[in-house]
Amino acid sequence: MARSVNMKLFYGALAVIGAVGVAALWTARTRGADDGPTTVSSAALAAVGDYEGYVLGSESAPVEIVEFADFQCPACARFTILTASDVKAGLVEGGLARWRFHDFPLPIHQHAPLAHHAAACAGEQGQFWGMHDQLFYNQGRWATESRPGRRFRDYAQALGLDLGRYDDCMGSGRYAARIEQAKREAIELNVTSTPSFLIGNQLVAGAIPYDSIKVLVERAAARASQ
Fold first, then answer.
1. Strand ranges (DSSP E) for the chain?
2. At how many degrees (to 10) do helices 149-158 and 163-172 cross?
3. How far apart are CA 142 and CA 131, in angstroms?
4. Beta bridge partners of 102
5. 20 to 30 A from 71, CA-CA: which of 1, 14, 55, 84?
6. What is the pLDDT of residues 148-190, one digit of tens each?
7. CB atoms inside a 10 Å sphere around CB 25
């Protein structure tokens, strides 16, 4: 069953990558050639620490990578499919960094709030990251549907969730306020697009490649050791 689910994710990802190609061209035109990391103040960093989000890796890691992402964002899906696994294998599992996912649904994506809520409900049963992958790898299937909640429920079933508990959570809407608060906190940090990454005290926008993330993490680790 696990192999079947993984293959479905893989083939869904191919469709997402194709769609993201067009979005990537638009993004490249709208971002300036000189865009790069900006330094975040200590006060702003403290505010980000108030939001727990969803974390992978050791709390003792010297550097934290915070990803501000939108489940309906094509560039976020591209990053997850093409780059995130390398970051986790090369930096998180090696103990150099921990990874924190921060909800940041954009107003232009009408289904994003519901998708983030579905991930939170899956998180109640220990499957946030499983739903995270289902949503990004299958983004091309649900993003254009009029009622994607039915598709999200299928993902919950594929992950082996207790559907009664999942349905109760979705019906309650109990994470809607928390997701909205997370978005406001990101805006106060001057996050304006997805994906964006806070690495140490450096904020950078865009689906940046693994090598760029590695350089920023190593610099942050060096600063932390001083």
1. 38-39, 54-56, 63-69, 97-103, 196-199, 202-205
2. 150
3. 13
4. 68
5. 1
6. 999 999 999 999 999 999 999 999 999 999 999 999 999 989 9
7. 10
